[in-house]
Amino acid sequence: MFSYKNKIAHRKKITAPKKICTKNNAYEKYKIPRSEHSISRDNIDPNALKVLYRLHKAGYRALLVGGGVRDILLGKTPKDFDITTDATPEEVKAIFKNCRLIGRRFRLAHILFGYNIIEVATFRGPHNDQHLKDKHISKQSQDGMLLRDNVYGTMKEDAERRDFTINALYYDIADFSIYDFCDGMKDLESNKLKLIGEPNVRYREDPVRMLRAIRFAGKLDFKLTEDVYEPIKQLAPLLQDIPAARHFDEVIKLLLSGHGLITYRMLKEYQLFQILFPILFKNCEYDKSNHMIEQALIDSDNRIEQNKRITPAYIYAVILWYPLDHRAKTMSIQNSTDYYHEFLRATSEILKEQLQMIAIPRRFTTTIRDIWILQLRLPRNCGKRAHKIYQHIKFRAGFDFLSLRAKIEQTPELIDLTQWWEKYQEQHPLPKHNHSRKMLNNTSTENETTNEN
Q: Using the 8-state DSSP alphabet, how is residue 169 labeled?
């Protein structure tokens, strides 16, 4: 298991606060003492420990919760360390100078340590009619979706508000124990993903929970219980009401976290991918796209395992390629114009339609356009044109895309073109680019490609 021990020599100098008295603690029956679990402070990010200790020293409950606890118990390295407390966001901000408050729907405190952010949330509580009178505290749509969720409560109430049992485990910095209110430890041991509460209600409160269910099942290789998967197909259209910006973040976690292929297949099985990318299913382009998407995700999963860089732009370019190609060909025939001209028009139309569902940032849509347009330029490799194309800052991403097309379509033209550019690269070193904003002219500042070394 990963340990921060060798990276934080100063941690031993931190004196643990006095243990709280739990003799009359109402939560005693939910408590797992330190001797009965495997979480060590050596496995916790030092900045998260600083936040935990300072909150506790200030007189508040301070607990590690969610994926940080879950992953350590599973022997994995957590990506995030989220903290929950009985301090309000304003009280947290008063303790930490490096704190900023974010969110309307969920009021959160972010403690900043350079690029490292430790998220602190106040215990959530149940909603009632009195709360619904104040729209700044609690607000719900007609479909049951929570539009405001700033009702605070106790630790046990907070656990009941969380999505899955394995995410409702609390590590208490006061005495290093774990609180398990929802039998999360049991589900961890049996590799089951179980929803807390009534599934129809919980999915309607936040439809993104359906995507999270698929993500955790794919990432952890857990089995969805029947009550978790049974309502998903029926409730999948609720995702259309979710802000497009949230969808972008979720798709990144779903497809570009090292388990993209299995997650993609589960998204299709439960008819969620069809909601996220409706344009893919309009003109029978899905069958052609499926093989290309699966191969791209296999390549991405391998790159992540090798700690190589990836960019969301590449996978979006792959997913939307055949709808784009079909649209351009159709417009070319209907308007009696050349394919290149209609291709440029179709590029804008396809992206505009997809952005209604997923808010892809401009820095990525610019790269997507570059990758697509390079597919038209790469065949024009005579004379000095080849050198000019080779100087393009996204050449490598465009070439990787061409190689993928050749692998999937197996046409002689694409295979020969790929081999020609492979030989060209062997004879010419890849040019170095200045990644300043001025030179890139608002394109991505990251020279990320899917298959670059």
A: E
Give the count of beta carbons closer than 10 Å to the beta carbon of residue 196: 20
As to burial, measured by CB atoms within 10 angstroms (0-12 exposed, 13-18 middle, 19+ buried), residue 53 is middle
Spacing of C-alpha 248 from chain mean position: 8
The 8-class DSSP code of residue 152 comes to B
Each residue's pLDDT tens digit, 273-299: 999 999 988 866 567 799 999 999 999
Q: Which residues of 118-142 are buried (b: 16+ CB within 10 A; e: fewer)?
A: bbbbbbbbebeeebeeeeebbbbee
Helix 362-377 / helix 339-355 crossing angle, nearest 10 deg: 160
Q: CATH classification of 199-276, choosing from 3.30.200.20, 1.10.10.10, 1.10.3720.10, 1.10.110.30?
A: 1.10.110.30
User: pLDDT tens for residues 395-405?
Assistant: 999 999 999 99
Condensed to tens digits (0 to 9), the pLDDT of residues 67-123 reads 999 999 999 999 899 999 999 999 999 999 999 998 877 789 999 999 999 999 999
**Does residue 45 have an active-site annotation?**
no
Structure tokens at 341: 């001209």
Mean pLDDT of 314-319: 97
Tell me the CATH architecture of domain 280-440.
Answer: Orthogonal Bundle (1.10)
CATH class, range 5-190? alpha beta
Q: How many CB atoms lie within 10 A of CB 44?
A: 23
| Catalytic annotation, pick one of 45, 71, 82, 180 | 82
Please state whether the predicted TM-score (pTM) of the whole model is above 0.85: no
Q: Are 215 and 258 within 8 A, CB to CB?
A: no
Long-range pairs for 71-74 at CB < 8 Å and ≥24 separation? Answer: 72/1, 72/38, 72/39, 72/43, 72/44, 73/37, 73/38, 73/39, 73/169, 73/185, 73/188, 74/188, 74/220
Residue 82 appears among annotated catalytic residues: yes
- Report helix, strand or coil for 3: coil
Question: Does the annotation count 227 as an active-site position?
Answer: no
* Catalytic residue (choose from 163, 172, 206, 301): 163
